[in-house]
Amino acid sequence: MEMEKKYNPHPIEEKWESFWEEKDYFSPHPGKRKETFSMVMPPPNITGVLHMGHAFNITLQDIVVRFKRMQGYEVLWIPGIDHAGIATQNVVERKLQKEGFTREKFGREKFIERIWQWKEKYGERIFHQMRKFAISCSWEDKAFTMDESHSRAVREVFIALYEQGYIYRGDYIINWCPRCQTALSDIEVEYEDFPGKLYYIRYPFVNSKTEDKNYITVATTRPETILGDTAVAVNPEDERYKKWKGKKLVLPLVGRVLPLIFDEYVDPDFGTGALKVTPAHDTQDFLIGKRHNLALINIFNKDATINEKGGIYQGFERYRCRKKIVEDLKNEGCLEKMEDYTYRLGRCYRCETSIEPFLSTQWFIRMRELAEDAIGVVKEGKIKFYPECWERNYFDWLEKIHDWCISRQIWWGHRLPVWYCQDCGEIIVTRQEPTRCKKCSSSKIKQEEDVLDTWFSSSLWPFSTLGWPEAGEKFNRFYPTSLLCSGWDILFFWVARMVMMGIKFTHKVPFEKVHIHPLIGDEKGEKMSKSRGNVVDPIDMTKKYGTDAFRFSLVALKTETPYLRFSPDRVRGYRNFANKIWNVSRFVLMNIGDFSPSNLTRALSSNKLQLCDRWILSRCRKSVKDVTLHLETFEFSQAAQRIYQFIWQEFCDWYVELTKSRLRKEGGEDRYIAQAVLYQVLRESLKLLHPFMPFITEDIFQRLPGTKESIMISNWPEGEGGEDKEAEEKMSLLMEIIVEIRTIRAEMEIPPQKKIEVILRTKSPEHMRILKENSSYITDLVHAENLVIASDVERPKICASGIAGDIDVFVPLKKVVNIEKEKKRLYKIFEDIEKELERTEKKLTSGEFLQKAPAEVVEKEKEKKAQLILKRDKLKKRLKELTLSL
Questions:
Q1: What is the DSSP string of 810-857?
Q2: Candidates 1.10.520, 3.60.21, 3.30.2320, 1.20.81; correct CATH number of 724-817?
C-alpha cells in the first residue's frame, strides 16, 4: 500500500476508528485471555461538551488500556456520564429563562422531563467526542449515574446505611448556596483569601450606656449577623474578663439581652478576645450554643436576604444589610473602629456565590467508622497511590472527616427514598414506594422533596457499573477494578468516598491502584476558565493538528505543580513528530519491498551485524524496558519522552542516516541485514508508540510486510536480549566526534554541499581501531572527502578544532571558507553578543527588576545570560583559531 507523501491525519482517523469498532476490539472477550484488567472512567458531567481536563484524563486511561491489551490482558474499560445535579439543573434553568420560563412555572415533573431531553442530546454528544480522541473503551457497557441499574444500587445503599444507623436526619449548620438554593458539603466549598474588614463593636452591659465606657468590645468580620447573636463568649483563662462573670450585655441596635459566657474555644489573641456567638450562622458558634443551651435565631431567608427575625432590616440583601448596620452602629456610638483584614471566604464550587453558614434540617451520613476502614486498606497496601505522596493528603482528610450532608434542595437527581406520614409524622424509608403509613395506616404520605448529593451516587460507580447489587459474571470477573485514574481535585469528593462505599458494600477495595494526575492549566500554569479567557477547546486542537499529535502533547508534559502548562504551540511541535514518523516509515517501506519477515530471526542473529545495527537494536531493547517500566508506574511523560527521544534522535537522526549507503547496494547480505534491522526497529517503535498515538501507528503497522491483525492486539515488545554495552560505548564515541564536526560546520557556516577534510588525533590504540573500522560513519554523516586518523599528526595552521573524549578534532578551513570574511562575520556576532550580555547583566543587577519581575521572567533572564556566555566563549575560540587578535 503506497503511502501519501504528506501525512494527513483526518481520513486516517476516520478509517481506523470505524475499523476498530467493527472488529469489536474494545470489548472484553471472556475465555480468550486469562488475566483481567478493568477500569471505570470518571464520568464527565452532562452539562455540555468535553473540556481539556476530560481530554487529558481519558487519554491517560486509554494509554493504559491499550498497553494492557497488548500485554495480553482481557480489558474492560467502562465509559459513563454523570447527571451532575446542581450543575445540570443550573444550565437547564438558564436555558429556560431565555425562553421566558422558570422551573417553578414548569413544575417538578415537567422540568425533570426537560433535563432528560438535555441528557439525551448532550450525553450522546459527549460519547461521540470521546470517540474522536481514539478512546478504546467498551461502548456496549456505557453507563449513566441515573440509569435504572445505577438507581437501584443508590436506593439499596441509602436504605442499608439508614437501617444500620449511618444515615440520620438532623438540624445542623450547613454550607448554603443562596444562588443554587441548596446545601453543599464541606468539600464543595472553594475558599479564597478575601480583603475585607474587621469591625470592632461595643456591647454595653445591662443598665449602662456605651458613653460610660461600660461595655465589651467584640471583633467580627460579619456585622450583619449580630441580628442573630444570643451570647458573647470569652476564654475562661482570660484575666481581662473574669471580673464580669455572670454579667449580661445588650445587643446593639436590637436590644436583646445576652449572657456573657466562658468557653475554651475562644482565642484570647484574636481581636479583643471576646466573641459574638451566632449559633444559627456559624459552625463553631453552633457547637458553643449546644454546650451552653443558647437559642438558635435564623435571620436569613434561603436567598440570603434578611427574614422577619431581622426586624427593621427585613428584606435587605445580606451585604446591603451589612452596610446599613455599620452605618447605624456608627450613629449609635457602638462602632469602635474598622481595620483592613484578610479572611477566608467560601464560595460555591459551581456558581462561585459566597456561601452562607445556615441552620437547616438535612440528611447526613456518619463518616468516622467508614473513614477508618478507608484509611486501613491504604496503610495495609491493598490500595496503592501513584505518586505515593498523595497518600498523605488522603489520610489528612479522612482523619479530620466530618459527617457528610447528603441532601440537596434541587429537583434533578436521585430523590431520597423517604416518605413522611402527614397524620402521625412517621418517617418511612423503604425500597418500594409505600401506599400507607406503616405506623398509623394513613394514606396521606408524601415523599421527601430533596435529592441526594451527586457524589453519593458517584461513590458507588466502580461496583454499580458492574451490576451490583446482583453479583453477576461481569462483577465477579472484573471487580475489584485494577486502576482508577483521577485528577487531584476530586481526591476527596470522589476517590476517598468510593473507597469507603466499596469496602462497606462489597467487602473489597473498589480498585487496587490510584493514579492522581495534575490538572491542565494554560501556558502560565494558571487554571483554565471562561472568565480568564484562556480556555482551549480540545476538539479544535484535534481538527487543527490531528488527534495523535494532540494526545501526545498532553502526556509529554511533565510538572511537579498542580497545573500542567499547556500551549497550542506544543501540539504544533508534536504534529511535526507525527510527520517525522510518517516520513521515516515511508522511507523504510520504500526500501524493504524485497524483504521477507520470515527470515527476520536469522538476519538479526547474524554475526555480520554492523556496529550501528547492534547499537540500534540495543537502544531499542533498552527503550522497551524503560517505556514498559514507566507505563507500569504511570509515569506517562517519562514514557512519552523516552519514545520521542528514541524514534527521532536515535532511530531517525542516526540509524536511518547510516543505512542509506547500504540500502543503495542492490542484493547482498549487508543490505538485507539493514532491511531486517529497519523493519524490526520500526515495528517495535510503532508498538511502543501505539498507546500514545493510536491512529498513525495502526495505519503504518498495517502496511508492514507480514501484518495479519491490528496493532491493538499485537504483542507488547519484550525487549529480549538485553543491552549491548560494547556497541553502545563505541557508537557513543563516534557520535560525539560527528556532533563536534557538525557543530564546527554550523558555526563556521560551511555550506552543506561543500566537502571538508577532517583530521582526528588519538593516542589510544583502542580508539584508533574503532575509528578506522567505522570511518565510513564519519565521512557519510559529516560530508567529508578526506579523513585522516593518526596519533602523531600536527594541527593545521588555519583550522577549527574540537575535542571528543580524548580525541582531537581538526577541520582545516583554508579551502572551505574565506578567512578574512569569516573573521569579520564572527567578530560582528561577537560584538552583538557582548552588547546583549551587557543589557542582560544590567537587568540582573537591578534591584527593581529582581523585585517586580515574576520569578519565571527572572529565571529566563538568568538562562539567557548563561547561553550568551557560552556563545561568546565559543566565538572567542573560533576567532582565535582564525588568528584574529582581541
A1: EEE-TTTS-HHHHHHHHHHHHHHHHHHHHHHHHHHT-HHHHHHS-HHH
A2: 3.30.2320
Distance CA 565, CA 579 (A): 24
What does the alpha-carbon distance between residue 855 and residue 857 come to, in Å, rounded to a whole number?
5
The backbone torsions φ and ψ at residue 861, rounded to the nearest 5 degrees and listed phi first, read: -65, -40
- CATH 3.30.450, domain 819-886, yes or no: no
Distances (CA, A) of 410 to 89, 96, 111, 238, 450: 8, 16, 11, 46, 6
Is the pLDDT at 557 greater than 60? The verdict is yes
Question: What is the 3-class SS of 576-605, one letter each residue?
Answer: HHHHHHHHHHHHHHHHCCCCCHHHHHHHHC
The pLDDT score that the predictor gives to residue 32 is: 63
Q: Partners of 483 in the beta sheet? A: 39, 513
Collapsing DSSP states into helix, strand and coil, what is residue 506?
helix
Position 211 scores a pLDDT of 60
Pick among 1.10.730.10, 3.40.190.170, 3.30.465.10, 3.40.50.1970: CATH of 569-717: 1.10.730.10
Q: Is the pLDDT of residue 115 over 60?
A: yes
Contacts of 356 (CB under 8 A, 6+ apart): 175, 176, 177, 178, 281, 300, 304, 318
Residue 495 is given by DSSP the state: I
First-to-last C-alpha distance (Å) of the chain = 61
Q: Give the pLDDT score at 210.
A: 55
Neighbours of 598 (CB within 10 A): 9
> Rounded distance, CA 505 to CA 500, Å?
9
Q: Which CATH superfamily is domain 17-145+152-156+458-547 in?
A: HUPs (3.40.50.620)
- CATH architecture of the domain with residue range 182-356: Alpha-Beta Complex (3.90)
How confident is the model at residue 886, as a pLDDT? Answer: 35
CA angle 462, 468, 473 (to 5 degrees): 95
Report the candidate in 360, 366, 363 with the shortest Cα–Cα distance to residue 427. 363
- Residue 803: which pLDDT band, with cuts at 50, 70 and 90? confident
